[in-house]
């Protein structure tokens, strides 16, 4: 992409309505525009990041054996009357009446709809285990939407639902989700800590929330610092291996980590003092096992091997995809702007031409642009007639992790400059070496 042809409406002023860094930076970097309270348009740069996160979520879900599909945003109220949640859900549910006077709603979640699909098509234990998921917009009429996309009213969520023959199988599905979520966040450059949670209105027995540590988080969190040293790295994971998956879950759930809702001061005391941490966190996902809470009232049953008819054991598992954009920025920014982790950056590298219109500089930039594109990178070339300072400021604001600076003086010496947004460190290298250098940097992320 060339900046001269892109749509990147950056703001010079700091928007007064934005209280936290991610909201400010998303507005300033031209990623989103508010349409109504808690409802946003995703401008091209924001949309690009959102799509990247969606892709990572899809890849990790499919890797875990979960099956993508798509359910509508609008749902008939009847399904929710069957489960008993139509009245229970309260004013957060946006209720709509269509022209035939039918009660509809904009889905805040999809347990009822997926259970209805399941009961219509599945009747035997032989069709299990089954986990279906989708990534779809949700609407919750939050009383106080705030912090931009972090607490919106309309937001993008991955929600997945497992159907299993009994509690034991459903717990493997639960563990599988935990591990696939850990991988997902790790690829996004995030440390998200699973914390034992309260089940809340969805109801259930086993549930963990995943929290990203950030000063601006809405939850208070208490944890053993040992948990932040854990990482999956390049481990080979066989999602059908119950023991391997359970062992990974053990590793992550053994160290103490809880939100204020489930915090147990007595247990926390047992953590060695030098490892006790109190902080704040952003909830970026949650997994639930809730057994037969929906399958029983809605009649989602299967016949077992012995010919017995039993309600299926279910769980639901969510990732806040649009919230993650904000959470990643909260965890990765500085005074000058965003600092995208390599796994989610909207463009891999920025090219800054210090002297637009200079034949040699222009040619060098074009050559780099072509070579990078051929190698599978997406460069963003600032080819505007702007001062160098303004170009640097834009690059710092939008946060591409790497910048190539090209100018007549360097070219005379046979070099361009490669700068890390995170460390600010630069190295000079021959233009021919840039592609290889970036290949090394982006290994595993392209
Ligand atoms: N209002 C919201 N705006 C943005 N993301 C949200 C919102 N509500 C929930 N999410 C995201 O969706 C994920 C799954 O939702 P869920 O756990 O059902 O929500 P909640 O924790 O509010 O009950 C949450 O972990 C969070 O990341
Ligand atoms: Mg939650």
From TrEMBL:
Gene Ontology cellular component list: cytosol
Name of encoding gene: proS
Role according to the record: Catalyzes the attachment of proline to tRNA(Pro) in a two-step reaction: proline is first activated by ATP to form Pro-AMP and then transferred to the acceptor end of tRNA(Pro).
Chief subcellular location: cytoplasm
Gene Ontology BP, a term: prolyl-tRNA aminoacylation
Natural source organism: Maritimibacter fusiformis
Name of the featured protein: Proline--tRNA ligase
CDD domains: ProRS_anticodon_short (cd00861), ProRS_core_prok (cd00779)
GO molecular function annotations of the record: ATP binding; proline-tRNA ligase activity
Upper lineage: Bacteria, Pseudomonadati, Pseudomonadota, Alphaproteobacteria, Rhodobacterales
NCBIfam families membership: PRK12325.1 (NF008979), proS_fam_II (TIGR00409)
